[in-house]
Design goal:
Shape: flat
Radius of gyration: 17 Å
Distance between the termini: 37 Å
Structural class: alpha+beta
Helix content: 25-40%
Amino acid sequence: MRKNGSLAEQRAYMYKLDSHFVLVLNADYQPLSDLPLRLWSWQETIKSLFTGKVQGVDIYPDDEVQAANIDVPLPSAIALTEYLPQPHQTPALTRRNVYLRDR
């Protein structure tokens, strides 16, 4: 949140942050799911960063989360610190999956 500014500016900044989602990668830097990709909100991402469950891979260049004592760059991609085994499944052949694959 912005330290200085009116309540309206703070609310606008929070709405701006809500439009940023974070790509979640496994510990081997592979996406956790194929389609649709696994995305987290910025709140979930910041909590996981501070608990040490994830590490930042890339950040949004102009956005940061500001707290009372620190400013944290907002990640755009994160990787889990522990590998999460994924079951090998072939995706279902549906119209939606073909659209997502081929646009």
